Amino acid sequence: MAEMKIIVQKYGGTSVGTSERIKSVAQRIKKYIDKGYSVVVVVSAMGKTTDTLIALANEISLQPDKRELDMLLSTGEQVTIALLAMALHEIGIDAISYTGSQIKLITDGNFSNAKIESISTEKIMNSLKNNKVVIVAGFQGIDSDENITTLGRGGSDTSAAALAAVLKTRDCEIYTDVDGVFTADPRVVPNTRKLKEISYDEMLELARLGAGVLHSRSVEFSKKYNIRLHVRSSFNYEEGTIVMPREEMMEKFVISGITSKMDESMITIRDIPDRPGIAAKIFDIFGQNKIYVNMIVQSTGKDKLASISITVRKSDFKKAMDLCESINKDFKAGGVQSKEDIAIVSAVGVGMLSAYGVAGKIFSIMSEHGINIEMISTSEIGISCVIDSMYAELAVKALHKEFIGPEQK
Ligand code: ADP
Ligand code: ASP
Ligand code: MG
Hints:
By secondary structure, the chain is of the alpha/beta class. It is built from eleven helices and 18 strands. The protein binds adenosine-5'-diphosphate, aspartic acid and magnesium ion (MG).
């Protein structure tokens, strides 16, 4: 038998939002079958189904049990896999749908944000060998006790990249509702530019810092297993953006993208005794309470006292505030200050490694627009500023104009 040419394709919510869209996805898959590919398809829930299911749960309970919420949310993807299989059957293509549990996609037990541990390829490979298109429900798996888990919002991208990894193929296409990865969210900033290619590191940084076009763990998988993620539109046949190793890239920019992360809150504990081990103790408390701390900035003051500022998800704000208040009391610190609505605005680019003055330019643009910077954090290839959330859009547009420019390349 000739060697199989496997391609993994993932179709997001808008791409499978209606029965017409599902039929059009089936036609696209047919083109790949005709070209001799063995196709594994990962799909999301139709349209805004996941949001609707969350709203439904919240009509019953504002804090639904996490296991039951994952049980509910996983139904969205199950609808799409069956409908897509039917659409393929209608045009004469053999196809079979599988849930996460049926392909033994095993995750840890962290409901609503589970991490993939392993996937069995047996069923998938057998079906491919029998010339079937394999359709897998994205975003879901099971833990070691067979509870249904989900991978976090946007997690179907990660299901697709993980499948490409275990099926040992470099080809993974992420079909979405924009033409690729842009220099900023094209729905927010006018005159953004589509990138032909972007490195794993930059894409990972952008995804972590709020660019919702890819789930950050899908980029981690792709980097680790050398998968070329092709982000493209399901509404046309244009080439999109390839996420690839930096060494293989043809075009390189100082700044590849500007992004913002909303729904974050900032908390500062002032004048904590500055002794070895204090920060460790504090972050241990956050870890035990399963609160994800995004940014951390410590500034030393006078008299062996320091201030620690953190940002957390807005949904964790109340819990984090309670913890900070008790830390403040236990360590006899100088008080807790907070801002519930902040945004983290970031510029990302590998070129920063070798460019001078990028940080200074960012700060002066912020000040020219009267935007106060509450916190700053840097990585090798990114600079992030915490600002009031009401200025997020203005800041992104201003940074984009300065670093990437209005002209279309
Ligand atoms: P899907 O349902 O296909 O997974 P998502 O809504 O998760 O789609 O991701 C696509 C969206 O990501 C786009 O509609 C766009 O508004 C948003 N987005 C944010 N930042 C970027 C960016 N830098 N490039 C492209 N799209 C972006
Ligand atoms: N349906 C899930 C969500 O809306 C997963 C995904 O679309 O990737 O977050
Ligand atoms: Mg998505």
